[in-house]
Specification:
Number of helices: 10
Number of strands: 13
CATH class of the largest domain: Mainly Beta
Largest sheet: 5 strands, mixed
CATH superfamily of the largest domain: Jelly Rolls
CATH topology of the largest domain: Jelly Rolls
Shape: elongated
Oligomer: single chain
């Protein structure tokens, strides 16, 4: 049974039938129909067309609107924003702004022709005074609205955090990307400098990667990059910072580690990657690694530059090897 017009709720019909109609409206559920017989006729009613904006943060609201038929949707920020709630028959809108005595926080728009009961601010409080059940129903409606808003906010925050993670994470390998690297590496370089601690940077490049991609395809190439990233995770400490620098090149910051120790770590990584090549591949999977120890004059940019230079020295010396940059505090 649908919700009837306002006249049916107020005038000249059987009490039991009127009571059953009221139960379809959240605000009037459980209320004795006779207790509101003098107040219901004071409610207004309006018909709105599809697309009609009922509530907006840009204008004051002085009424609660109860959906008797049709449907409304709620949007935060703008009418073009995704809907955060559907309001069908029996639901109401506008109660939050009325209780808080503030402009609406959202847009409410009709998504189809709708017939609405209109309860003025003054009449709402008279109904609250008249019936404890009405007061309880209003509190339930308000709490459900708050819970719904909180769930939307929590969901939105989750989406935002995921977007932030995506903005700082390389989608293929799951390592930090260049944006993440710039922030985190700079922070760690500053920390070790102030604490007068050792720090090294490794630049790692997959040898002959373009040739491998051309021969075996980009999917196989992606698998190689993922395998190298996993090897880095396996042989590095939780305190080491790993980033995909770009393409087939990786950057690793090694705090509190001397060059000699960093070289030992790099050799283990190089050997591990070299062992990834299955016999069926005619192009071996190897990496060239360059290492630079931080000097007092180094920032992230100069560290990367010196380690990158050492990496190219390793390539020119035959690839699949580790090279260390010259260290000077001149």
């Amino acid at each position: 049974m649908g919700i009837a017009n306002l006249e049916s709720l107020a005038y000249g019909i059987d009490t039991d039938f009127r009571r059953s109609l009221l139960q379809g409206i959240a605000l009037f559920r459980g209320i004795d129909a006779d207790s509101m017989s003098d107040l219901l006729p004071q409610c207004g009613r309006i018909d709105v067309v599809e697309g009609h904006v009922l509530l907006s943060p840009e204008r004051e609201n002085h009424c609660v609107y109860v959906v008797l038929s049709g449907r409304l949707t709620v949007h935060l920020g703008s009418l073009d924003a995704p809907k955060i709630a559907d309001l069908g028959p029996g639901s109401c809108a506008g109660e939050m702004s009325l209780i808080e005595n503030k402009d609406p926080s959202a847009f409410v728009v009709a998504t189809e022709p709708s017939h609405l009961m209109v309860i003025s601010h003054t009449l709402l409080w008279r109904m609250v005074d008249r019936s404890h059940t009405f007061c309880k129903n209003l509190l339930v409606v308000l709490s459900e609205r708050v819970r719904s808003d909180n769930e939307y906010i929590a969901s939105s925050l989750g989406v935002l955090r995921q977007a932030e993670r995506n903005a700082q994470t390389d989608a293929l390998t799951g390592l930090g990307n260049r944006h993440w690297m710039r922030t985190m590496f700079e922070r760690e370089v500053t920390r070790t400098l102030h604490a007068n601690k050792e720090l090294c940077l490794m630049m790692i490049d997959v040898d002959n990667f373009k040739t491998f991609n051309d021969k075996y395809g980009h999917i196989a190439g992606d698998r190689v990059l993922v395998a190298v990233a996993e090897a880095l995770r396996e042989f590095l400490r939780p305190t080491d910072l790993i980033a995909r620098f770009g393409g087939d090149e990786f950057a690793v910051l090694l705090p509190d580690l001397q060059v000699k120790q960093a070289r030992q770590t790099a050799e283990r990584i190089r050997q591990q990657v070299a062992g990834l090549s299955p016999p069926s591949l005619s192009t071996a999977i190897t990496v060239s690694i360059g290492i630079a120890g931080r000097t007092q004059r180094d920032d992230v940019g100069t560290l990367v530059q010196r380690a990158d230079g050492a990496m190219y020295d390793a390539k020119e010396a035959g690839r699949n090897r580790v090279a260390v940059a010259q260290q000077s505090d001149e």
